[in-house]
Task: inverse folding
């Protein structure tokens, strides 16, 4: 197909060059990556089992350390709460209540921390789950234990409720009895955790912490028992045996350190747990155990004993915290070592494939950069450059503009899509060629439309000249003819000529040229509608009796007559024969609406929406839209006049066409100053085409008997003289 003069010459496609497989981007990318993947897979399979086991062991050790730490700290806070409860009871139950409240808050915080750690620990082994469950069961009764400890005078039913879920002996009325099962359960959890298999460095410290926690618990029970004994100055039945049992259990726990602790740990324990308070507490306990042989041993101030034993217990607890710190540090180090081992395995694996991956990464970076550049360029071309260039070409006013737009767009695209010798370069060239071909096609279509538009304009101008001369001759014959029959036939010829002229103007409108009719003075709205009705075949069916007395601005008269003529003809064609087409107006603050009613079969909502969309956005005339040429003409005229045209379904049947004229096009009657022209006198210049259509309407009314023929002739004379003086018809050039 030959191209137009404005299109770029057709370029031969770039031939595909066969290259070595090693130069293919796909092979060059996949080969090193494939080798590296195979090596990594082999090494990973061999080492993954060991790495995973080591990582799990480190995580398990840290979880056990966390659980043991939380258990020991909670047990210590519970022992402190027991001591504060006993002190409050000794002070009468009211003085210093804030101290107990503060300690209970610290215990609750320790419970929350323990609950999180216990949840993680219980998932490790069934034994741990059983011990944790028992401790949680006792923690659930913490509020009841606090109430029993503060109110030893509880009634029998409350004591029975406590006894039903408590294996201790609350009957002695001491706070230790109320908390006894809870403290034993916590000690059991600590001992169970310490018995779990773990790394040797962790196992020693774990057993030390558990042993000292049990010893601290026995020391707390001794502190409570002897405080009451020293206060009474004697033992109650069974208390001496209980003290001996507690002291023996504590001594056994301390003696276990020699078997499970290293020499360094034993030295640090001896250095940490010593001093006057430790010596005094030991001396007082030993003296109480020799009560039967030394009765004066119970003559001790209870507060002196309480302070000495508490300080001794604090030294044991501080040493526990030191060991706990070491335990947590060792657990963290073990976990870190296991992770480091996994990292080392990964590093060794990565070292095996580093060389091959290095080449692949370098090539991938280079390729990805070019691909990203190509992607950005392609997106810019498809989303912005090509649509904008096509839009500029389609709206270009001249062939030279089309060529300039085509050349500048191709230069930009060539800069974005840099060619090359590999597949990416070929793809860039292909995309650039695709853009060039698409833009060339749009340019060819634009040039073709310009050629067709010029042909339309030339043919329409010639046709307009001939029709205009025909209308002038008809107007001269009508002016001198007095026979009604002959005048009626002349008006029919005048009407056909007017329709021919409107068809010629349609071609001009679609080609984007000026129709050729121009007015220099405003015209009455009624005369505009009458002139539009005169340009259709069945003008006698137009009922324009309900029109506002307004004047239309001279610059809009010609196009408005043309627009209304198209709407009126469409309404007449799609209405039943003999029915009337009503034309009415409605004035608002912002505009004037001219409404054309027909009584046809109506339009479906889908088709109505499509037609209104075409009225809002005029399309280019195509073979498919040739049957709706009038609709396209109306859309173009509405766009030129900057008015709104809309189709709606009538309430009963048919279709309503609305033309909204803005106030800038409207003039009130008092604002129009027109100089009158006499009816008689020298011959008037040839009237404009609107006169013939107005005259045709009047003659039709006279023929049907609506008005008197003499009045019709007077109306015709008035139209001929008035409109001829008000408007100027400029015939188009040949």
Result:
């Amino acid at each position: 197909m030959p191209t137009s003069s404005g299109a770029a010459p057709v370029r031969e496609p770039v031939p595909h060059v066969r290259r070595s497989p090693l130069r293919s981007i796909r092979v060059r990318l996949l080969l090193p990556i494939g080798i590296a993947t195979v090596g990594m897979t082999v090494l990973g399979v061999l080492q993954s089992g060991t790495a995973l086991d080591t990582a799990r062991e480190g995580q398990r050790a840290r979880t056990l350390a966390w659980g043991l730490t939380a258990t020991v700290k909670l047990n210590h806070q519970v022992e402190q709460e027991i001591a504060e409860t006993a002190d409050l009871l000794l002070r009468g139950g009211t003085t210093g209540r804030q101290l107990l409240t503060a300690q209970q808050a610290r215990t609750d915080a320790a419970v929350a921390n323990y609950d999180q750690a216990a949840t993680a620990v219980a998932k490790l082994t069934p034994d741990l789950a059983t011990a944790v469950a028992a401790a949680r069961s006792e923690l659930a009764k913490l509020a009841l234990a606090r109430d029993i400890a503060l109110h030893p005078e509880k009634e029998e039913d409350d004591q029975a409720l406590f006894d039903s879920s408590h294996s201790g002996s609350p009957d002695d009325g001491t706070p230790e009895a109320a908390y006894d099962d809870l403290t034993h359960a916590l000690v059991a959890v600590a001992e169970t955790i310490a018995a779990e298999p773990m790394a040797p460095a962790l196992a020693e410290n774990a057993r030390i912490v558990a042993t000292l926690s049990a010893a601290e618990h026995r020391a707390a029970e001794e502190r409570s028992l002897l405080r009451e004994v020293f206060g009474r100055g004697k033992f109650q039945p069974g208390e001496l045996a209980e003290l001996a049992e507690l002291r023996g259990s504590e001594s056994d726990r301390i003696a276990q350190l020699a078997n499970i602790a290293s020499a360094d740990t034993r030295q640090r324990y001896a250095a940490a747990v010593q001093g006057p308070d430790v010596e005094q507490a030991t001396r007082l306990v030993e003296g109480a155990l020799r009560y039967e042989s030394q009765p004066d041993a119970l003559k001790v101030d209870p507060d002196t004993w309480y302070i000495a034993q508490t300080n001794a217990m604090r030294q044991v607890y501080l040493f526990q915290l030191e060991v706990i710190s070491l335990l947590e540090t060792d657990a963290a180090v073990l976990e870190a070592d296991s992770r480091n081992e996994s990292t080392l395995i990964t590093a060794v694996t990565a070292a095996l494939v580093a060389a091959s991956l290095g080449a692949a990464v370098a090539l991938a970076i280079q390729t990805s950069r070019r691909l990203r550049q190509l992607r950005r360029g392609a997106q810019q071309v498809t989303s912005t450059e090509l649509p904008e260039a096509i839009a500029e070409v389609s709206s270009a006013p001249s062939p030279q503009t089309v060529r300039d737009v085509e050349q500048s767009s191709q230069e930009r695209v060539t800069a974005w899509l840099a060619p090359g010798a590999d597949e990416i370069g070929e793809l860039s060239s292909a995309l650039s060629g695709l853009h060039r071909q698409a833009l060339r096609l749009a340019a060819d279509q634009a040039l073709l439309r310009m050629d067709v538009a010029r042909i339309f304009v030339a043919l329409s101008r010639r046709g307009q000249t001939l029709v205009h001369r025909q209308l002038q001759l008809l107007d001269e014959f009508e002016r001198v003819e007095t026979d009604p029959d002959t005048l009626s036939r002349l008006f029919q010829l005048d009407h056909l000529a007017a329709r021919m002229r409107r068809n010629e103007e349609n071609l001009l409108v679609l080609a984007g040229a000026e129709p050729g009719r121009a007015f220099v003075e405003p015209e009455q709205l009624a005369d505009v509608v009458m002139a539009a009705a005169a340009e259709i075949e069945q003008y006698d069916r137009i009922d324009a009796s309900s029109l506002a007395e307004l004047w239309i601005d001279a610059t809009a008269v010609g196009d408005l007559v043309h627009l209304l003529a198209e709407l009126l003809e469409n309404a007449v064609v799609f209405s039943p024969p003999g029915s009337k087409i009503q034309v009415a107006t409605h004035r608002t603050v912002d505009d004037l609406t001219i409404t054309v009613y027909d009584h046809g079969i109506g339009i479906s909502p889908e088709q109505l929406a499509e037609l209104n969309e075409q009225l809002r956005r005029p399309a280019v005339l195509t073979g498919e839209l040739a049957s709706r040429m009038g609709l396209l003409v109306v859309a173009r005229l509405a766009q030129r006049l900057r008015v709104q045209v809309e189709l709606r379904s009538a309430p009963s049947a048919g279709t309503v066409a609305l033309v909204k004229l803005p106030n800038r096009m409207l003039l009130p009657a008092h604002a129009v100053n027109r100089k009158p022209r006499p009816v008689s006198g020298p011959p008037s210049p040839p009237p404009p085409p609107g006169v013939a259509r107005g005259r045709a309407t009047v003659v039709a009314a006279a023929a049907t008997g609506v008005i008197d023929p003499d009045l019709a002739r007077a109306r015709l004379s008035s139209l001929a003289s008035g409109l001829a003086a008000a408007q100027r018809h400029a015939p188009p050039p040949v």
